[in-house]
Amino acid sequence: MPSDKTEISSVDIASQTPDKQRLYIETYGCQMNVSDSEVVAAILQQQKYYLVRESSMADVILINTCSIRENAEQKIRHRLAALKKYKKNSNGPVIGIIGCMAERLKEKIFEEERIVDLIAGPDSYRDLPRLIHEAERGEKTANTILSFEETYADISPVRLDENGVCAFISIMRGCNNLCAYCVVPYTRGRERSRDPQSILREAEEVYSIGYREITLLGQNVNSYSWIDDKNDVDIDFPGLLALLAGKFPDVRIRFSTSHPKDMSEKLIKTISSYHNICKGIHLPLQSGSTEVLNRMKRKYTADEYMDRIKAIRKYIPEAAVSTDIIAGFCGETEDDHQQTLDLMKKAEFDFAYMFKYSERPGTLAARKYTDDVPDDVKTKRLNEIITLQNILSLHSKKKDPGKIFEVLVEGPSKKSGENYMGRTSQNKVVVFPAEDSKPGQYVHVKIEKCTSATLIGRIVKK
Which of 64, 152, 291, 343 is the most exposed place for a label (fewest CB within 10 A)? Predict the structure, then answer.
């Protein structure tokens, strides 16, 4: 699940009262972190806190962090440096680091970032009221205990998004894949799936307040599994998708992120069978070289990955496939890099998240491999990957002018208040004159032109 992009979420949920304290949550990283911030907001809302939009207004500031790359952690450190001004007097706010960086570094954060008062890992959010109370008394306090059971299934998250159209629902936590480069199993623990009834309950809640798109989240959603022998329940991910799509036919269902080894034919056929299961599939590749994939411990070959792409094209010909690619992993040769470029051309990805390899402490790669690809070579290879993907993205978009797509309206476009933006089932961004449409509505848009990133069109009657 890509996470280099910084996302900041905050919204008021109550008016100020004397017995309540002001809480500000700032979120960095992946969609799972956004979902976790909504859980944190719900837990603290039940206590004595209400959310504010600015850190300068807060009694408690929580920074929900990402550790997947060094650059992600550096953003947090720069942000903490900017928050030092609030600690110039004894009445300054409590500042807490939560999430993956908290779990990875634990109490070491107190030594490196002296303004931090509390630390909470992803499985200890229920303990935040106690941690904040201790921090308010001047104590440095932490809880980074990972759980084999915690899914926060009983908590109804406070929705922090701005548009009220697209909601995230976490269906599982943790990861068992142990890819050589990845810190997630160490920061989020082992896989555990949520009770499907709790997922249905949360989906019903967001539907009842107007949301019309749900993205199911997990480090590897297609390994979701819920077995309850007592009640004779056995649901895998295709079964969960079918359950939700059937119950909410006018709600789009997306999911992120998938592992190629678990992208079964059953799952692909389930996606093709329901009109409201979106036809945009994110399938991380990481490398087009089987040798590199083997070192990465990805558990599939380049040929097996392409078999999954061929199956998607066979059963869902209208699908758009996006991916993740890492440039310059340990031992990557120029030939390995060329194999990645070749596979990209064969797969014809519509979009990609592309990064240079960043060694993360504690991972298998950091312990066993040498980060031996020079940074300038990583940069060169990444630039070649980006250049090729821009060509592929534009080629994909150029197929769309003249077509009519069903678009879910999300809200005003970034560049013009007269235009709205939304997404197709394939997750392609569409910009169009607003006319009398409203966020949360489905409209049909005829595509007139495109860029490599955006489709541009107008609403038509179909």
Answer: 291
Read off the pLDDT band of 3 (50, 70, 90).
very low
Phi, psi dihedrals of residue 218, rounded to the nearest 5°: 180, 160
Residue ranges per structural domain of the chain: 21-143, 166-398, 404-460
pTM of the model: 0.91
Q: Residue 80: which of 116, 53, 104, 51 has the closest Cα?
A: 116
Q: Answer for the pair 222, 236: CB distance below 8 angstroms, yes or no.
A: no
d(CA 263, CA 256): 12
* Nearest residue to 279 (alpha-carbon basis) of 252, 247, 242, 239: 252
Residue 391 CA neighbour count, 13 Å, CB half = 9
Q: What is the DSSP string of 120-148?
A: E-TT-GGGHHHHHHHHHTT--EEE----S
Tens digit of pLDDT for each residue in 58-100? 999 999 999 988 889 999 999 999 999 998 877 899 999 999 9
The answer as to CATH 3.20.20.150 being correct for domain 166-398 is no
Helices (H), 369-436: 375-398
Burial of 121 (0-12, 13-18, 19+ CB in 10 A): buried
pLDDT grade for 18, boundaries at 50, 70 and 90:
low
d(C-alpha 173, C-alpha 150), whole Å: 8
Helices (H), 280-410: 290-296, 302-315, 334-347, 364-368, 375-398
Question: Which phi and psi angles does 262 have, rounded to 5°?
Answer: -110, 10
User: Cα–Cα distance between 181 and 67 in angstroms, integer?
Assistant: 12
CB count, 10 Å around CB of 425?
Answer: 20
